[in-house]
Design goal:
It contains nine helices and five strands; from the N terminus they run βββαααβαβααααα. By secondary structure, it is α/β, with parallel strands linked by helices. Strand 2 (25-34) and strand 3 (37-45) form a beta hairpin. Strands 3-2-1-4-5 form a five-stranded mixed β-sheet, with helices on both faces. It has a single domain, classed as 2-Layer Sandwich (Nucleotidyltransferase, domain 5), CATH 3.30.420.10. It has helices at 54-60, 64-68, 73-84, 94-107, 119-126, 135-141, 153-175, 182-188, 196-201, and strands at residues 7-14, 25-34, 37-45, 88-91, 116-118. The structure holds one DNA strand.
DNA sequence: TGCCAGGCCCTCTTTAGGGCCTT
């Protein structure tokens, strides 16, 4: 059963930007947040069935040699479907990860019932004076301790989860909202950045 | 990264163009 405040934060490493143009997932990382804490982790490399180009090897640190012995996407995605269950989902620039989750799940006839929220869209509302809204920049901006490798799926999902929790705490400390439903975060990401304060004050 | 995507969002806008994010 899904708990109302439980979310799964996920991140894909892929062969490129577009599953519609044949790109595939090569790594999935995810963490489960329950009661404001990370309580479980998931990380698997996936063999996409073909070689990845040097740019992706350099960008992610994932090499063709590492993928040679990895299990195929379909096996990993079936396992991942069990991990996410019916929980709601969070990702940094969620439209990107949603496209790959949808494409990889379609290949194995898996479905998920959770809804997506986007940490990047939320950060554009809450951290409007950040230099930019890349994950690494926001982690520094929010003063989240960081000593791992960005652009690996599990590390990025952990950093996104900590950023997500920091933003919920920001809402709590600035607007007195200690309990923030997932649906509120979704509504907030659809609110004009000029109306964020008014929106949150009306719900305090 | 790129001849290469897509959604969001701003503005010199809405009969559009371009930057930001993700790999």
């Amino acid at each position: 059963m899904s708990k109302a405040n439980t979310v799964v934060v996920l991140d894909f490493e892929t062969t490129g930007l577009s599953p519609a143009y044949g790109d595939r997932a090569i790594e999935i990382g995810a963490v489960r947040i329950e009661g404001g804490e990370i309580t479980d982790r998931f990380q698997k490399l996936m063999n996409p069935g073909r070689l990845i180009d040097p740019f992706i090897e350099n960008y992610t640190g994932i090499t063709n040699d590492m993928l040679k012995s990895a299990r195929p996407c379909k096996e990993v995605m079936s396992e991942f479907a069990y991990f996410i269950g019916d929980h709601n989902l969070v990702a940094h620039n969620a439209s990107f990860d949603k496209r790959f989750l949808d494409a990889e799940f379609k290949r194995v006839s898996k479905k998920y019932t959770g809804k997506f929220a986007c940490s990047m869209l939320l950060s554009r509302r809450l951290y409007q004076d950040a230099a930019n809204h890349k994950l690494a920049t926001l982690v520094r901006y929010a003063k989240i301790p960081s000593d791992g490798d960005f652009h690996r799926a599990l590390y990025d999902s952990e950093m996104t989860a900590k950023l997500w929790l920091a933003m919920l705490e920001h809402i709590n400390s600035h607007y007195g909202l200690s309990s923030i439903p997932f649906t509120l975060t979704q509504k907030l990401t659809k609110t004009s950045k000029h109306h964020v304060s008014k929106f949150l004050k009306s719900r305090a």
